[in-house]
Amino acid sequence: MPTQAEFLQFTQWSGIATLFFAVLTLLAFIVKWGIRFRLVGTTGFMLVLTAGLLSLSLVPISRTVIPGAVPYTLVYDSGASQAVISVPQTISPEQVEATLRQAASNLYSFGRSGMQGEDKLTIRARTLLHPEPGLTIPLYLGQVKRSLAKREDSQMSVEVFADKFAQLSKANG
């Protein structure tokens, strides 16, 4: 994945290309070339591309890595205060806690807003059990609640549902 410095270099080259197309478009209008309106579109596209590259050079796009966390899949995200991640059936309680902490860090965004006065982002970890063919049961293994307002949340609460691991071991056993 490109770094911020590389995105800044891409932005510079894209900016130069944008200026080139702007000058070419101006020349096309002066000389009345037939492709002048296509050049307007090309210049506009280059301007949007340059702005996108500039934003990627300013904002880090790295993910948090917590030791002991396992890969997870985001299966539901309201965009506000609720999210659900899927974890493998072979996960341990310690891995659930680490994975929830990692998800809480990675899913934090300034753009989230609480619904009905909620000021916490709740992320639940679940796995799927298949007790018999054609039947799937979601089993929630834990949850984390973190602040929607602060990036670094010292009041984050992680809850691992120990009783659910008994069901999980029975299903895997």
Describe the protein's architecture and organization.
The protein has 173 residues and is of the alpha+beta class. The protein folds into 2 domains: 55 residues; 100 residues, no CATH class. Helices cover 44% and strands 23% of the residues. The protein is built from 4 helices and 5 strands, in the order ααββαβββα. It has a 5-stranded mixed β-sheet with strand order 1-2-3-4-5. Strand 3 and strand 4 form a beta hairpin.
Write the layout of secondary structure elements.
Layout (H helix, E strand, L loop, with lengths): L3 H28 L4 H23 L14 E5 L4 E5 L6 H14 L13 E13 L2 E13 L9 E4 L1 H11 L1
Parallel strand pairs: 2-3
Antiparallel strand pairs: 1-2, 3-4, 4-5
Q: Keyphrases for this structure?
A:
single chain; 173 residues; alpha+beta; 2 domains; 5-stranded mixed beta sheet; 5 strands; 44% helix; 23% strand; elongated
Brief characterization of the structure:
Helix content is 44%, strand content 23%. The protein has 173 residues and is α+β, with helices and mostly antiparallel strands.
Strand content: 15-25%
* Overall form: elongated
Radius of gyration: 24 Å
Mean pLDDT: 87
List segments where confidence is low: pLDDT < 50 over at least 5 consecutive residues: none
> Number of folding domains?
2
Q: State the helix count.
A: 4
Main sheet overview: 5 strands, mixed
Structural category is alpha+beta
**Spatial strand order of the main sheet:** 1-2-3-4-5
For the secondary structure, the number of strands is: 5
Helix content estimate: 40-55%
Oligomeric state of shown chains:
single chain
Task: Quote the distance from N terminus to C terminus.
Answer: 41 Å
SSE pattern, N- to C-terminal: HHEEHEEEH
